[in-house]
Amino acid sequence: MNSPEETAVPAAGLRRGAQIEVEVEDLAFGGRALSRVEGLVVFIEGALPGDRVLATIYRRKRQYAEARAERILRPATTRVDARCSHVAVCGGCRTQDLDYAEQLRHKERQVEECLAHLGGVRTTARPIIAAPSTFHYRNKMEYSFGRDPDGTLTLGLHRRGFFDRTFDLERCHIATPISSEIVVAAREWARRETLTPYDTRRNSGLLRYLVVREGIRTGQVMVNLVATERHPSFAALAEELHRRFPAIASIVLNLTRRKAQIALGEEEHVLFGKATIEERLGGLTFEISSNSFFQTNTEQGERLLETALEGLALTGTERVLDVYSGTGTFTLPIAGRAREVVGIESSEAAVRDAERNAARNGISNARFYNEDAMESLRDRFGLGTRGSGAPFDRPEIDAVLVDPPRAGLHAGVVSRLIHLGARRLVYVSCNPSTLGRDLALLCESRYRLTWVRPVDMFPHTPHIECVAALERYDPT
User: Fold this and answer.
1) Helices 432-442 and 411-420, interaxial angle, to 10°?
2) Are residues 273 and 320 located together in one domain of the fold?
3) Signed CA dihedral, 395, 396, 398, 403: sign only
4) CA-CA distance, 223 to 1, in Å (whole number)?
5) Residue finishing a domain among 281, 307, 327
6) Cβ partners under 8 Å of residue 243, min gap 6
């Protein structure tokens, strides 16, 4: 066999199958290790910054190549032993074997680079808020049913790089302990009942997902089984899970025939207990239903909330607009510091949850509208062509909070927010790349960025949450 020096090739020879010996330089946004060979960027799976590896090219594009580490010739000094036995195959905790302080340093830098490269906004981020718990921090996990190569039913997480391949989970170290135990019990039941897992390619089969939620502060657990149709054995599963796990307060069945790979149903049935569980966040108690959004890291969710409230800098006299308000996890705490807060949310179920949570916590100065963000800003707030909605007193909106999905803000929403012209705007983002794009538009004419701060909601993963605080300025 040739030595690494003999198999290493220059950039011009980086074809599929070629081997290279490289020093890993960096960690790119998204969690992939990065190196350069004669100016060509090479993304390397199974490597970390500081490693020296022997890698094999498996894909070559004009501007970059992708490789897989075959052997670590010299490990980085920041490498640590991974706690999880699935780290080599799981698509989740890609950096569990990287020292946590290094994870934070890279995430902080990636936020700054995304804002600079995608938005032209050059700033130094405030220090990232580290997670006090780096394991067992997720209060919600979605597990997928599938088959292994010999046809046996599996229940676990997706293999890295594959949307249709799952592996049997033994224990997930970012989920709560009871979550992994419920997975094992449900898998045993499904195999015993010889039930069929859903086939994503054929759009056939019975079992799709098992979703486990836990109220970290209340101890209440919800199990949500997502399937294509009802089956007599589901009642037996509910009875068995309740018997084995007394903390379970809710077991629901969600039915869906959609091809979309999301653990949501069009029809819900309660198999045991009630339809919701409770969790406490920011001094308030929230009821959470199976399909509602709630911060999946309760501890860091509170720090994210505190950071957003810092950016809003409320005195108690303001009227605040919360766009993409969800179940009210930001809206309701804001209500305690403002004269009035209005939430806009397109999900009818989320609005019902938000209104129920407002009533439960005795909050009367929060209103919610089940409307699309752009249409609501246009029609209800009089920003753009007027529609049939009742006009809102637009000049009295003093501050705005936006917490959009990963795709960020629609350009029409950005333009209407600029037109609205609230004195302060806080942007909570789960995607620094779309945040950079949107900040470029917001800061083009009427706003300036005062600060941005990352919050590490998901240790050992490439995901980055951050809060950006903006102030309106009026050029003379």
Assistant:
1) 40
2) no
3) negative
4) 53
5) 281
6) none
Contact 137, 147 (CB under 8 A): no
Q: Which amino acid is at 350?
A: A
Distance between CA atoms of residues 380 and 372, nearest Å: 11
Residues 125 and 146 in one domain: no
- Taking only the tens place, the pLDDT of each residue in 282-332 is 999 999 999 888 999 999 999 999 999 999 999 999 999 999 999 999 999
Domains in the chain: how many in total?
3
Q: What is the largest CA-CA distance in the chain?
A: 77
Give the separation between CA 72 and CA 396, rounded to whole angstroms: 60
Torsion (CA) 180, 185, 190, 192 in degrees, nearest 10 = 150
Contact 134, 459 (CB under 8 A): yes
Q: Are 235 and 315 contained in the same domain?
A: no
Q: Which domain holds residue 353?
A: 117-130+297-472
Residue type, 115: L
- Cα 408 from Cα 425, distance rounded (Å): 15
pLDDT digits (tens, 9 = 90+) for 102-154: 999 999 999 999 999 988 999 999 999 999 999 999 999 999 999 998 999 99
Rounded to the nearest integer, the mean pLDDT of the chain is: 91
Q: Do 39 and 8 reside in the same domain of the chain?
A: yes
Strand locations in 9-108 (E): 19-23, 26-27, 33-37, 40-45, 52-60, 64-74
Decide: 470 and 38 in contact? Cβ < 8 Å.
Answer: no
Where is 328: in which H helix or E strand? none
SS3 of residue 202 by DSSP:
coil
Q: Is the pLDDT of residue 58 over 60?
A: yes
Cβ atoms of 316 and 294 within 8 Å: the answer is no
Residues 379 and 301 both lie in one domain: yes
**Encoded tokens for 150:** 């010999």
**pTM for this entry:** 0.90
60, burial (CB in 10 Å: exposed 0-12, middle 13-18, buried 19+)? middle
User: What positions carry a catalytic annotation?
Assistant: 430
Give yes or no: residues 325 and 463 share one domain.
yes
Residue 108 corresponds to which tokens in the numbers above?
Answer: 């902080």
Q: Are residues 261 and 329 in the same domain?
A: no
